[in-house]
Write a structure and sequence with these properties.
The protein is an alpha+beta fold. Helices cover 30% and strands 34% of the residues.
Length: 169
């Protein structure tokens, strides 16, 4: 594997994002979708997300191995007027073959640096109890607030809890 490069994503990455979301859901990733995920539904989600990014409401980052998108994370920035200090980490996904290589950590650090650059002092996120990335987030200094049981369905239809985290920047 070559060194991955991290970039903000645009509509040019739509095909890679669509593939990554479908792969993540098929592997059991609890990222708001059910399995099997139709390609047109995955593509529509990313089209909306990238449109919000072009309007400044978020930044979608991708990690690339050559010309292949292998991981992504979204930094949400569009919050009410009483929360200008806050951001949220969302849709962290890494292709299964690339997990455990530090790519997600580098993406997370990139999103945190961007949040700080934009004056954000608090980040929040959530992850699935079963199969989520709690080890990644705790290793990156996020503090567990608690668990909400039976918060969402896994891609195969089982109820699953969600862990809520925060980090002060």
């Amino acid at each position: 594997m070559t060194e991955t490069r991290i970039t903000p994503l645009t509509h040019a990455a739509l095909d890679g994002l669509t593939e990554l979301l479908i792969e993540t859901v098929a592997a059991g990733g609890s990222v708001s979708f059910m399995h099997p995920l139709p390609p047109e539904q995955a593509r529509a989600f990313w089209q909306g997300s990238l449109e919000a990014a072009s309007g400044g409401g978020r930044v979608v980052y991708g990690a690339w191995d050559g010309d292949r998108l292998v991981s992504t994370v979204t930094l949400l920035l569009d919050f009410p007027p009483n929360q200008p200090h806050r951001g949220e980490i969302a849709k962290m996904m890494t292709r299964t073959a690339y997990r455990g290589r530090g790519t997600a950590t580098r993406l997370l650090q990139t999103a945190e640096a961007e949040a700080a650059r934009r004056g954000r002092t608090l980040l929040t996120l959530d992850t699935s109890v079963d199969g989520g990335a709690s080890t990644l987030y705790e290793g990156a200094g996020y503090t567990l607030v608690g668990e909400i049981p039976d918060f969402a369905l896994t891609p195969d239809g089982r109820l699953n809890g969600t862990l809520i985290y925060y980090k002060r920047l």
